[in-house]
Predict the structure.
Amino acid sequence: MLKRKIELEFTEYDDFNELDPADQHLVNEARRAVGHAYAPYSDFKVGAAVLLENGNIIIGSNQENAAYPSGLCAERVALFAAKSQFPDQKIIAVAIATAAGEITGEPIAPCGGCRQVFAEYGDQQPSEIVLLLAAGNLRVSRFEDARILLPGRFSWKDLKKGR
């Protein structure tokens, strides 16, 4: 028997002004994207902002649909738009914001499907994707590598290698 341990390390900022100005800007773009969310069924509005190596910021918001589960999370909307518009650009960072964070005071973490997309995109590039999770105007959690949120992730590349 082999016993393993998974640890999660991140930085938590209780004061938005403690963040680096570039991180503040990206979080503000994600907050702006919340206003574009279409969430008439859940009323759970989320915005995301993707910073690319060329300096472009691509935003996305969750988009629901009565034909559930046809909707899509803000993170995937933004990531897929970034990769479809700029397929050769490295993703530097992603910020996620939600109005619910103002109520809970806690950052809302991405769902499992979004975590898988972060992991796969992170595996496709030579450097990590920084992830910023914002709780309204309160707390921000900063992860140096978004892949850390999905230990034991699924990978076709690993399957092809016979793992």
Summary: The longest helix spans residues 21-34. The radius of gyration is 16 Å. The chain has one domain: 14-160. The mean pLDDT is 90.
